[in-house]
Amino acid sequence: MTHCRIDVREFSISTNQGTFMQEVKKKSNRQGRGGDGLHRKRKGGSWYFYHGKKPNGKPNELSTGKKDYNEALAYRAAYIKRSQPMRVGKRTKFQEVAQNWKETRDFKSKVTGATYLNALNNHLLPHFESMAVRDINADDLRNYQSKRLGENGDEATINLELSVFRMILNRLELWQGIKEDFEFFPSKGFSGRPWQQNEVDAVSAELASQKSFWYFSFAETILYESGMAHKQCRCLRRRDIDLIRGIFSVSRPTTKSPNGVRIFRMTAKAREAATELLEEAKKRGSTEPEHFVFPGTVWGGGKRVLDPTRPISNFNFAWRKVRQCAGIDPKLRLQDLRSTLATDMSEVGINPLRAGQMLGMSEPVRAGIRNHSLLAKRADMQKVEHMRNERAKEYLLSQVADTSTRDDDLQVDEWL
Questions:
Q1: Which of 102, 215, 336, 362 can bridge 256 by disulfide, Cβ–Cβ 3.0-4.6 Å?
Q2: pTM of full prediction above 0.70
Q3: How far is 223 from 250, CA to CA, in rounded Å?
Q4: Distance separating alpha carbons of residues 411 and 405, to the nearest angstrom
């Protein structure tokens, strides 16, 4: 009689190992296998990895554009292999390193790639191609700036071209020796301006006439009345809204305030908007203290559904539509509401330090005067609210007077 012996312990280890490998393949939604260098930002999203550094010295995060783990792993390996910096000797020409950069560089979009290659081929290469890359210094870049200005080049365009140059040298670790002695042209971007009363009224009238974006009316009111930043507003949770004390408590990890929380005082209009917002958000599934009152969306059942555990990405789409329908300045931004409140505070004589505290600036508040400070904030916000109400009344009366004058002129013309 033949006996068949089975090593139960070995079989158990083999089974456990197989189960373990299956668990490894199903590794958490944010982290790949140990040492593979991959990570995710959200469950089911694309895999990311770090490679190299940005010009400011921070790690450069890249997206594989792949949701499958094995495809992302292969993409990362191929990217690292082809992005190895070429060896640069004393006589290596800029044309050689530029060609290597073009062959190995991955662009996030075709438009970006076309813009960078246009700057390189049409402007940078004709000027630097015959120069030894190790001999290029800050004076050469300044000469390039002067030459391009003589060709009627715009300062922003020249900055873009030299940004491409910086990418090439930074990859070769040669930019560090130049950046200390060189400066780009200062940015001339639109820095914003306070809203005018007619713009405030136009937006309010447009929001009252349409219900396409249920959330935007509340967001605009809260931003205008509190001076809260756009990102802080969209990340508000139910627990951050205290109707009893009349405050918004913004507790983001990146906040600059000493105790990690920014406090924004409510006006009467802000309190009314916050009350209605909580009710509307509750209808859309935001019921827990940790839930966001401006919920984001996720794919579910072949369509997008609201998810109160995630905040809305931004208000930009709704804002562009409302701004276009209201017929106001296309450059006007939601962030400018913060400047509008700061301007109104200065008009009613509020101290700049206190105004900074009210807007959630990083100025520390002393513990000994905390209660007095909160009382002062409430009184100051009442001043701002009163001033805004009076200004709105004056604007409305002026509009009525203009209309009456035009009607009177029309009657006189008809009589004549």
A1: 362
A2: no
A3: 13
A4: 10
